[in-house]
């Protein structure tokens, strides 16, 4: 008998019919003799609707009151799923984040889980009940309701799996698993059977939406094996776990694409110490995630500082930077939004040279210009024109023959999303 | 500077515009220098919609999961009202029942408040904030979310006023105050300036919907003056308070009408000890509120036992009684639903005789038959044909000249409602 955590997203519980589909799947696991804890998101578009409701009262609501409202979305979905299970004859009990023991800290709309006191959930499991926990939320030590930010339900699930010592954490989603690249961009994309935490982290951070990077980090920290799989059928998906093979068969795991980036150039920055620090400290204070930074010499005594920020943060970034441009005596602020970031990720890069060269070669062959390059130990990212993203993705995918033997790849992919949240980067 | 508790019902916060109307009224009290705590219900028909949502998943949901869902209604309305106040520049903070310190016990959908630990609410008030508390809900000592049942928001408000030692508890409603009778039934109805707790309790329990009897009882217990007034204008309403005048000017205070009653007759009950106890113990166990009980001798060795139950409880009452009728050897169970209860209430009755005679005389003059009579120290109730209710109400109102000098009456009234909940009676 195993302890299993299952997480279902908003689409999976978007209607009464779908809630019953989830309930039947959960019940099957329970009837197979497992202890099952389930984490659910709010139904369908509930969270967006609740945001709109609050915004109809005020365009600048306090985070506290917004979190108070948003948390009701999961409170309803957990109770409906528990009710569906009970109706099917399967004992079940719902828990809000606070009741489940999710202790958070930080601002009400982007808090972090600092503790998971899963005593009540364990009791329910030991009493033969399915425990249904609200994703995306918790309460701080004063009982204040916090939300974890979008994608927080994945993190709730992985943290619960860690707290329960669960055998597996299954993330049910509307895709089959993790692909070498978003199949909507490159139809030859191959599903991966396994991927390492680090690779998944790079891919997720670089734009792959299938799993939230915070959840991957949490899984890595607590060695929770995460199984990303489809909520529409029973096939195996992709396991996200620690490195298993001593020798890797493949160098490259996956390609991530991110269209939601804006290039910002602070032109003509005086070549004095502390200029870059001044700019990025201000962006960090404004909680803007900066990625892909390049500093180039414009002419003697002046530099250009280039970087990217997510689309959503553009207005905030502009408001933050305009006074600084004046203050430090830079020439101007240039903003370019028709850019996209393409990243190649693979733990195998550590041992293999030539990946960067291959990537650049593939892009050059397609006559695609690279605007910024950034690398980590297991990733190379290039900023290119948004209109050439698909060509770039196809060229790189083909160059590295990523459609071959995907089962042997320890690799990854990705969805290009409008609401993508990049959690990493320099702050 | 006074401490004021204000309660607004679902209609008053039924839209963003209305929420702003409430916010402006609350802000005016705060700007006048008072400490203001506000209790709100869920917006408009939210509670009914949430009930329907749960019922779409299961016709027999568990009370616990239903309460989990229902409590979200107020959680949204408190946060929206707090947001509106903040938008107007008035510091405000919302509290769920659990956060406000409402400790409940009993079943999840009809729990009672056993404690109100208003420390956090007091802190907010002392920090110059308007405190906004979710009505209708609380949490038990294990953190389980409970609701108080319909009308519970009134009770939350009065209990909060007691916990804060508030100077007044204002219940804002869609009527101007308490009338001698529902003006829709008798247009000559007069608004009362004051009414005693006991009178209000009898009227509310007998069908007047303007204030929930539990709230009145709570007010009486803690000597909280309750001001029932309109949320549409600033005129004074009716004060519900302890007896103030040493001598009363009037005998009769108000008339309550209740159409939501069903007459049940258990016919041919053997004349043995314990028969009535058997019947009413079973009804009590099924949590059915029984009212107006009469036992009459049918013939030697056999009695008829007659009583009324609310419409809503009929199915449950029938299911409870049918096996008992067989078990105790009674002849049959007769159910009649075209009946109505009309009650005359007045603390002055204690010192004056002849009220019952006057009531019967007024009904006889209209040729209205009385099926059951029941009395308390300050109330006389008659069960009559539903079709004659309006005639009966007019005749009695006129007979006692209740349209005259209402300001001197210490009296009461009432609304005839389809969802009326009678909380008292024999269980």
Give the structure's gist in a few sentences:
2 copies of one chain form a homodimer. By secondary structure, chain A is of the alpha/beta class.
Number of helices of chain A: 12
- Main-sheet strand order of chain A equals 3-6-2-1-9-11-12-10
Assembly type of the chains comes to homodimer
Query: Hey, which two chains have the biggest interface?
Result: A-B, 37 and 37 residues
Which regions of chain A are unreliable across 5 or more consecutive residues at pLDDT < 50?
Answer: 407-427
Termini separation of chain A (Å)? 44 Å
Kindly give the count of domains of chain A: 2
Percent of residues of chain A in helical segments? 25-40%
Average pLDDT reading of chain A:
88
Could you describe the largest sheet of chain A, including whether it forms a barrel?
A: 8 strands, mixed
Instruction: Bin the strand percentage of chain A.
Output: 25-35%
Count of β-strands of chain A: 18
One letter per element, helices H and strands E, the order of chain A comes to EHEHHEHEEHEEEHEEHHEEEHEEHEHEEH
Principal-axis shape of chain A: globular
| Rg from alpha-carbon coordinates of chain A | 23 Å
> Which class of secondary structure composition applies to the elements of chain A?
alpha/beta
Second rung of CATH, namely the architecture of the largest domain in chain A: 3-Layer(aba) Sandwich
CATH topology of the largest domain in chain A: Carbamate kinase
CATH superfamily of the largest domain in chain A: Acetylglutamate kinase-like
Family (chains A, B): Belongs to the aspartokinase family.
Organism (chains A, B): Dethiobacter alkaliphilus AHT 1
Pfam family, one (chains A, B): ACT_9
Binding site for substrate (chains A, B): 47, 74
């Amino acid at each position: 008998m195993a302890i299993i955590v299952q997480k279902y997203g908003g689409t999976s519980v978007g209607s009464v019919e779908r809630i019953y589909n989830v309930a039947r799947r959960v019940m099957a696991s329970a009837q197979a003799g497992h202890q099952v804890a389930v984490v659910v998101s709010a139904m369908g578009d509930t969270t967006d609707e609740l945001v709109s409701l609050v915004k109809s009262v005020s365009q600048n609501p306090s985070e506290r009151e917004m979190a108070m409202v948003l948390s009701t979305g999961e409170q309803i979905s957990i109770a409906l799923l528990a009710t569906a299970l009970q109706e099917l004859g399967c004992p079940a009990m719902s828990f809000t984040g606070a009741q489940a023991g999710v202790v958070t800290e930080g601002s009400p709309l982007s808090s972090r889980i600092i503790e998971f006191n899963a005593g009540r959930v364990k009791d329910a499991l030991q009493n033969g009940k399915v425990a249904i926990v609200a994703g995306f939320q918790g309460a701080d030590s004063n009982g204040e309701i916090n939300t974890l930010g979008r994608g927080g339900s994945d993190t709730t699930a992985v943290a619960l799996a860690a707290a329960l010592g669960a055998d597996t954490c299954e993330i049910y989603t509307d895709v089959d698993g993790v692909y070498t690249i978003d199949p909507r961009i490159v139809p030859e994309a191959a599903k991966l059977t396994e991927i390492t935490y680090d690779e998944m982290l790079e891919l997720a951070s670089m734009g792959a939406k299938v799993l939230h990077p915070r959840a991957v980090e949490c899984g890595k920290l607590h060695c929770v094996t995460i199984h990303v799989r489809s909520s529409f059928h029973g096939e195996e998906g992709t396991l996200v776990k620690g490195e298993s093979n001593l020798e890797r068969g493949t160098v490259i795991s996956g390609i991530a694409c991110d269209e939601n980036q804006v290039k910002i150039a602070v032109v003509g920055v005086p070549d004095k110490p502390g200029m870059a620090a001044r700019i990025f400290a201000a962006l960090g204070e404004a909680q803007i995630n900066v990625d892909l930074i390049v500093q180039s010499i414009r002419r003697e005594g002046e530099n250009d500082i280039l970087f990217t920020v997510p689309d959503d943060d553009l207005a905030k970034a502009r408001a933050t930077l305009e006074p600084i441009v004046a203050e430090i005596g830079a020439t101007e602020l240039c903003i370019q939004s028709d850019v996209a970031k393409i990243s190649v990720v693979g733990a195998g890069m550590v041992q293999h040279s030539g990946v960067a060269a291959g990537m650049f070669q593939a892009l050059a062959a397609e006559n695609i210009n690279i605007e910024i390059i950034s690398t980590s130990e297991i990733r190379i990212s290039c900023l290119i024109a948004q209109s050439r993203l698909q060509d770039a993705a196809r060229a790189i995918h083909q160059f590295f023959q990523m459609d071959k033997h995907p089962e042997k790849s320890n690799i990854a992919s990705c969805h290009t999303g409008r609401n993508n949240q990049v959690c990493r980067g320099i702050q």
